[in-house]
Amino acid sequence: PKGRRAGSDYVTFSISYGTRRGATKARILSQICRRGGVSGDVIGAIQLQSGRSLFQIARKAASQFEEKVRQPDKRDPGIRIEQVPIEIDVRSQNSTKGKSAQSTQKRTNTAPPQRRKRRKPNSPA
Protein backbone atom coordinates (compact mmCIF):
# COMPACT_ATOMS: atom_id res chain seq x y z
CA PRO A 1 0.00 0.00 0.00
CA LYS A 2 1.15 3.54 -0.70
CA GLY A 3 2.64 5.46 2.20
CA ARG A 4 3.71 2.35 4.10
CA ARG A 5 7.40 2.03 4.89
CA ALA A 6 9.54 -0.80 6.21
CA GLY A 7 11.01 0.00 9.58
CA SER A 8 10.53 -0.04 13.29
CA ASP A 9 6.76 0.55 13.07
CA TYR A 10 6.23 -2.92 11.58
CA VAL A 11 7.19 -6.50 12.37
CA THR A 12 7.81 -8.92 9.50
CA PHE A 13 6.11 -12.31 9.34
CA SER A 14 6.43 -15.23 6.95
CA ILE A 15 3.59 -17.40 5.68
CA SER A 16 4.31 -20.79 4.10
CA TYR A 17 2.22 -19.94 1.07
CA GLY A 18 3.85 -18.66 -2.09
CA THR A 19 3.22 -18.15 -5.77
CA ARG A 20 4.12 -21.77 -6.53
CA ARG A 21 0.94 -22.78 -4.66
CA GLY A 22 -1.20 -20.03 -6.18
CA ALA A 23 -0.73 -17.27 -3.61
CA THR A 24 -1.83 -13.77 -4.54
CA LYS A 25 -1.79 -10.65 -2.40
CA ALA A 26 -5.56 -10.93 -1.97
CA ARG A 27 -5.31 -14.53 -0.75
CA ILE A 28 -2.46 -13.68 1.61
CA LEU A 29 -4.46 -10.73 2.97
CA SER A 30 -7.41 -13.03 3.57
CA GLN A 31 -5.23 -15.51 5.50
CA ILE A 32 -3.68 -12.73 7.59
CA CYS A 33 -7.04 -11.20 8.55
CA ARG A 34 -8.81 -14.49 9.23
CA ARG A 35 -6.00 -16.23 11.09
CA GLY A 36 -4.73 -13.23 13.01
CA GLY A 37 -8.02 -11.51 13.71
CA VAL A 38 -6.76 -8.21 12.31
CA SER A 39 -8.06 -5.66 9.84
CA GLY A 40 -6.23 -4.10 6.93
CA ASP A 41 -5.21 -0.98 8.85
CA VAL A 42 -2.47 -2.91 10.75
CA ILE A 43 -1.09 -4.70 7.68
CA GLY A 44 1.87 -3.20 5.85
CA ALA A 45 3.62 -4.47 2.74
CA ILE A 46 3.06 -7.96 1.34
CA GLN A 47 5.84 -9.54 -0.68
CA LEU A 48 5.11 -12.68 -2.69
CA GLN A 49 7.85 -15.24 -3.16
CA SER A 50 7.91 -18.65 -4.78
CA GLY A 51 7.75 -20.88 -1.70
CA ARG A 52 6.60 -18.43 0.94
CA SER A 53 5.44 -14.85 1.31
CA LEU A 54 6.45 -12.06 3.68
CA PHE A 55 4.20 -9.42 5.18
CA GLN A 56 4.24 -6.70 7.80
CA ILE A 57 2.06 -6.24 10.87
CA ALA A 58 2.05 -3.00 12.85
CA ARG A 59 4.25 -3.37 15.93
CA LYS A 60 1.33 -2.38 18.20
CA ALA A 61 -0.65 -5.44 17.02
CA ALA A 62 2.21 -7.89 16.38
CA SER A 63 2.35 -9.74 19.72
CA GLN A 64 -1.40 -10.42 19.81
CA PHE A 65 -1.31 -11.39 16.12
CA GLU A 66 1.55 -13.83 16.76
CA GLU A 67 -0.38 -15.49 19.61
CA LYS A 68 -3.41 -16.07 17.39
CA VAL A 69 -1.53 -17.45 14.37
CA ARG A 70 0.35 -20.00 16.50
CA GLN A 71 -2.84 -22.04 16.69
CA PRO A 72 -3.18 -24.63 13.90
CA ASP A 73 -5.69 -23.62 11.26
CA LYS A 74 -8.53 -26.08 10.64
CA ARG A 75 -9.16 -24.82 7.09
CA ASP A 76 -5.51 -24.76 5.99
CA PRO A 77 -3.46 -26.91 8.39
CA GLY A 78 -0.38 -26.88 6.14
CA ILE A 79 0.01 -23.10 6.18
CA ARG A 80 2.28 -21.78 8.93
CA ILE A 81 2.76 -18.15 9.95
CA GLU A 82 5.87 -17.12 11.90
CA GLN A 83 7.68 -13.94 12.81
CA VAL A 84 10.97 -13.51 10.95
CA PRO A 85 13.93 -11.31 11.89
CA ILE A 86 14.06 -9.40 8.59
CA GLU A 87 12.36 -6.36 7.15
CA ILE A 88 10.67 -6.05 3.78
CA ASP A 89 12.24 -3.46 1.51
CA VAL A 90 9.11 -1.72 0.25
CA ARG A 91 11.07 0.42 -2.23
CA SER A 92 12.33 -2.60 -4.18
CA GLN A 93 8.85 -4.13 -4.16
CA ASN A 94 7.27 -0.98 -5.60
CA SER A 95 9.79 -0.95 -8.41
CA THR A 96 8.70 -4.42 -9.55
CA LYS A 97 5.03 -3.38 -9.73
CA GLY A 98 3.71 -6.68 -8.45
CA LYS A 99 6.04 -8.94 -10.42
CA SER A 100 8.25 -11.43 -8.66
CA ALA A 101 11.92 -10.56 -8.31
CA GLN A 102 12.88 -13.44 -10.59
CA SER A 103 10.70 -12.23 -13.45
CA THR A 104 12.24 -8.75 -13.37
CA GLN A 105 15.85 -9.93 -13.51
CA LYS A 106 17.64 -9.54 -16.80
CA ARG A 107 17.65 -12.83 -18.62
CA THR A 108 20.99 -13.88 -20.03
CA ASN A 109 19.78 -16.80 -22.12
CA THR A 110 16.80 -15.79 -24.24
CA ALA A 111 16.67 -18.99 -26.28
CA PRO A 112 14.12 -21.54 -25.09
CA PRO A 113 15.62 -24.60 -23.43
CA GLN A 114 16.32 -27.50 -25.75
CA ARG A 115 14.05 -30.48 -25.19
CA ARG A 116 15.50 -33.93 -25.37
CA LYS A 117 13.70 -36.34 -27.62
CA ARG A 118 12.41 -39.43 -25.87
CA ARG A 119 13.56 -42.68 -27.26
CA LYS A 120 10.77 -44.97 -28.20
CA PRO A 121 10.98 -48.34 -26.51
CA ASN A 122 11.70 -51.23 -28.78
CA SER A 123 8.42 -52.80 -29.73
CA PRO A 124 8.18 -56.57 -29.66
CA ALA A 125 8.47 -58.10 -33.12
Overview of the molecule:
The chain is an alpha+beta fold and 125 residues long. The chain is 27% helix and 17% strand. The protein contains 4 helices and 4 strands. The chain has helices at 25-36, 59-69, 90-96, 101-104; strands at 10-15, 43-48, 53-58, 81-83. Strands 2-3-1-4 form a 4-stranded antiparallel sheet. It is elongated, with a radius of gyration of 20 Å. Mean pLDDT is 78; it is low at 94-109.
SSE class: alpha+beta
Distance between the termini: 67 Å
What Rg, in angstroms, do the CA atoms define? 20 Å
**Order of helical and strand elements:** EHEEHEHH
Task: Briefly characterize the structure.
The protein is α+β, with helices and mostly antiparallel strands and 125 residues long. Helix content is 27%, strand content 17%.
Task: Spell out the key features of this protein.
single chain; 125 residues; alpha+beta; 4-stranded antiparallel sheet
Helix-strand layout with pairing:
Elements: E1 10-15, H1 25-36, E2 43-48, E3 53-58, H2 59-69, E4 81-83, H3 90-96, H4 101-104
Antiparallel strand pairs: 1-3, 1-4, 2-3
